[in-house]
Amino acid sequence: MEIAIIAHDGKKADMVQFLNENKALLQQEGVKIIATGTTGSKAIAAGFKVKRYLSGPMGGDAQIAARVAEGKTQMVLFFKDPASSHAHEADINMLIRICDVHNVPLVTNEATAKRLVETLRK
């Protein structure tokens, strides 16, 4: 299963904490993690094996959306920061739409991510 991780700047520390809390599950054989640039760098620094794409504002959200559309990515964990505006909002909305079109689970906050990961444990 390929899981994409994305986090806005104000949520990157939360993403790394979430990854560490779920390390055993996310490092299982058969689980591949991909990420936008800076989020991927933070995850790698925390000891995760991650395939990095471009930073979100530079096209990384669009690259991950393409992988969803191609059927390569089965889940997207996107810790959005609702308190700030983002220059690449169009790409974010496109990613959300592509996940909806292809019926790929997308979570946009940590509480929902925790619930989704619980279902994977079963």
From TrEMBL:
GO terms for cellular component: cytosol. HAMAP family: Methylglyoxal_synth (MF_00549). The keyword Lyase applies. NCBIfam families: PRK05234.1 (NF003559). SMART domains: MGS. It holds the Pfam family MGS. InterPro entries: Methylgl_synth, Methylglyoxal_synth_AS, MGS-like_dom, MGS-like_dom_sf. Gene3D superfamilies: Methylglyoxal synthase-like domain. Its EC number is 4.2.3.3. Residues 1-122 form the MGS-like domain. Keywords: Lyase. One of its GO terms (biological process) is methylglyoxal biosynthetic process. The active site is at D61. The keyword Cytoplasm does not apply. This is Methylglyoxal synthase. It catalyses: dihydroxyacetone phosphate = methylglyoxal + phosphate. It comes from Flavobacterium fontis. Transmembrane segments: none annotated. The gene is mgsA.
